Amino acid sequence: MSNGGVKEIIDEVIRKYRVTVFIRPGCPHCLGAKNIVRKYIGRVVPQAEVCFVDIEQQADSRAFQNYLQLITGAPAVPSSFINGQFVGGQQTLRYLHTSGQLTDMLQTTIKR
């Protein structure tokens, strides 16, 4: 898969869902990020507006990781996006969760 194809796929997923988290199996930080987001599903954000993308399940996982690094500046997953904006990894999600800011961010809907 070309990087152009990867860019289109990633950009579309980020645009389509209110919450997108790119993860890798076996990554404890990815599991932590996923668990934080799951606390809000059904309570603050509908399941249909949340997407977890396992980059290892993609045809070219290295290209996925490279493009994510390009757009986020972060060298590894998890990479979390809310309303199309990169917010960070597990540590940032945990901070936003404990401070109450994550609820506000998830309740804010932008036109896609």
TrEMBL record:
The keyword Aminoacyl-tRNA synthetase does not apply. GO terms for cellular component: mitochondrion. Residues 19-87 form the Glutaredoxin domain. It holds the Pfam family Glutaredoxin. It comes from the Eukaryota. Keywords: Disulfide bond, Electron transport, Redox-active center, Transport. GO terms for molecular function: glutathione disulfide oxidoreductase activity. Has a glutathione-disulfide oxidoreductase activity in the presence of NADPH and glutathione reductase. Reduces low molecular weight disulfides and proteins. Belongs to the glutaredoxin family. PANTHER family: GLUTAREDOXIN-1. This is Glutaredoxin-1. It comes from Dreissena polymorpha (Zebra mussel).
